[in-house]
Write a structure and sequence with these properties.
By secondary structure, the protein is mainly beta. The protein is built from no helices and eleven strands. The strands form two sheets. Strands 2, 4, 5, 6, 9, 10 and 11 form a seven-stranded mixed β-sheet that branches. The protein has a four-stranded antiparallel β-sheet with strand order 1-3-8-7, with no helix packed on it.
Length: 124
């Protein structure tokens, strides 16, 4: 089992940047595919991106491609989401998730563990 704790959210102006962190407990971090999802008020949770165990295979939603970057640091048991050129439509609660299943997939059902989320608000 793994516990996930997100941090780094906040209020930022459009065009700004934020870096979210997700710290994982336990010594099996490297066995998990890590994903980021977000949920805006009144909307369903949506996939943002994911990274495989070794960090060399990534997947992004079209809406964030070329603006967001996922990375992981196994020494720190942490996965990051760097968000650049933020837009008001990026406003949401952002969640990290861990999956024992194969490649970095966009479906929330394949993720076994979830963090509590961190709020990101982008003002226009």
């Amino acid at each position: 089992q793994v516990q996930l704790v997100e941090s780094g959210g906040g209020l930022v102006q459009a065009g700004g940047s934020l870096r979210l962190s997700c710290a994982a407990s336990g010594r099996t971090f490297s066995t998990y595919v890590m994903g980021w999802f977000r949920q805006a008020p009144g909307k369903e949770r949506e996939f943002v991106g994911a990274i495989n165990r070794s960090g060399d295979r990534l997947s992004y939603a079209d809406s964030v491609k070329d603006r967001f970057t996922i990375s992981r640091d196994s020494a720190k048991n942490t996965v990051y989401l760097r968000m650049n050129s933020l837009k008001p439509e990026d406003t949401a609660v952002y969640y990290c998730a861990a999956s024992l299943s194969g490649p970095p997939l966009p479906m929330s059902r394949v993720y076994d563990y979830w963090g509590q989320g961190t709020q990101v608000t982008v003002s226009s």
